[in-house]
Design a protein that fits this description.
Blueprint: E1 2-8, E2 12-19, E3 33-38, H1 47-60, E4 74-79, E5 90-91, H2 94-102, H3 111-125, E6 130-134, H4 144-147, H5 153-157, H6 167-181, E7 189-195, E8 199-205, E9 208-212, H7 233-241, H8 250-256, H9 259-264, H10 270-278, H11 282-306, E10 311-315, H12 316-321, H13 323-330, H14 342-346, E11 352-353, E12 362-365, H15 370-396
Length: about 400
């Protein structure tokens, strides 16, 4: 089964192709083909055309892996916000797309791009089956104390509550951590740090999310690349009363002009912030310090909810590739049993333990495998459909 995966993030468009046989591999296999657009560096007149061109290189480019578009059996999409309606992976229909569109306001940097991707696939590949896999799904079993906001209870009744995000990768990292530690995931208490352009923590106990930092939208929680994370909502009402901020400006300010970019004035890319910091740029240094302060505070909160921690996991672009962030994040957390091996942290490879031998808790760096996790969910869904169709055919005969 050839499964094409589209991962439309806030800062990039990724695509990958996997071939899965009759048995789902236990280890993530190498993909047959992958491609990516970094929107911060790309200069395109049309995002839709750029994405269509990107996808078509799977069967037309020099690194093509397919002979024709008809070789694609199913397409999986990462969908950031499933709202109150969608939890499990689901075949995409016009009704499902309408449901995703209704909650697009809650994840404005993502859901619109993901819907656009579905339409591009319809144009390129016709009626090929498409599957939506939701980032919010993994967090749907969080307890009410972590889910319900302390506002009017009517908010909760209207579906305004904490959903959580990055669930696809948080769930994958929990399973991968258990494999690396040679433990049952049901026996582990994990704090997973998904640190990319978007950032979130998840407290995972027994393989289930019991708390996370993102909430009703991906804005809540940690400081991010261009997103503010949690701030005092009174700031917004103050600025609105002062006529410095209109309601329609809020999304733009908090999603696109805050975070590392807003504080440093340089970039939302941690690599550029770190480079400027090394050159003595004061606002870049402040941006880094705020980022680490909030990350440490968040990790502490997750450990408190878990009642302890077996391992801290770093994943995604910054988590995997920035030894500076990992080292700074763990610097004041030896009280939680975290001791970083300086050499391992500086020269680590993917899916490695960077804790010292005597560290009571382990510190893992795990490569984000959202694309593979989505492909695996597509495989499971299609296999389940085939099984049901086979049973129906048997009953008919």
């Amino acid at each position: 089964m050839n499964i094409l995966v589209l991962n439309s993030g806030s800062s990039s468009q990724k695509a990958a192709l996997y071939a899965i046989g009759e048995i789902l591999p236990k280890e993530p296999p190498a993909c047959l083909w992958e491609a990516e657009i970094d929107w911060a560096r790309a200069r395109v007149s049309s995002r839709a055309e750029a994405v269509a061109d990107l996808i078509s290189t799977a069967w037309t480019g020099p690194s093509r892996a397919l002979n024709a578009p008809s070789d694609v059996d199913v397409v999986g999409h990462r969908v950031v916000h499933g709202g109150p309606q969608y939890e499990e992976p689901i075949a995409i229909t016009p009704e499902v797309k309408s449901g995703i569109r209704r909650v697009s306001a809650f994840a404005p940097l993502h859901n619109h791009a993901e819907l656009e991707g579905m339409e591009i696939i319809e144009t390129l590949l016709g009626s090929v089956p498409q599957v939506a896999v939701f980032d919010t799904g993994f967090h749907r079993r969080m307890p009410p104390a972590a889910t319900v906001y302390p506002g009017p209870y009517e908010w909760f009744e209207r579906g305004i509550h904490r959903y959580g995000f990055h669930g696809i990768n948080h769930q994958y990292c929990a399973a991968r951590a258990a494999h690396l530690l040679q433990r049952d995931v049901e026996s582990l208490k994990l704090v997973v740090c998904h640190l990319g352009n978007g950032c979130s923590l998840a407290a995972i106990r027994g393989g289930h999310s019991i708390d996370t930092t993102m909430g009703f939208t991906p804005l809540e929680g940690l400081m991010m690349g261009t997103r503010s994370g949690s701030i005092d909502p009174g700031i917004l009402t103050y600025l609105m009363r002062a006529r410095e901020l209109r309601g329609e400006d809020i999304d733009d300010v908090l999603n696109r002009r805050s975070g590392l970019l807003g504080i440093s004035g340089i970039s939302g890319d941690m690599r550029q912030v770190l480079a400027a910091r090394k050159e003595g740029h004061q606002r870049a240094s402040l941006a880094f310090d705020i980022y680490v302060h909030r990350l440490q505070a968040g990790i502490g909160a997750m450990v408190a909810v878990l009642g302890g921690m077996d391992a801290l996991v770093f994943t995604a672009g910054i988590g995997e590739n920035s030894p500076e962030v990992r080292s700074a994040a763990c610097a004041n957390l030896e009280c939680l049993g975290l001791r970083v091996d300086v050499a391992a942290n500086a020269h680590m490879f993917a899916d490695a333990d960077i804790a010292t031998v005597d560290s009571p808790a382990r510190i893992l760096v795990i490569q984000a495998q959202e694309d593979w996790a989505i492909a695996a969910e597509c495989w499971r869904l299609i296999q389940a459909q085939r099984t049901r169709e086979g049973r129906t055919s048997q009953r008919v005969h």
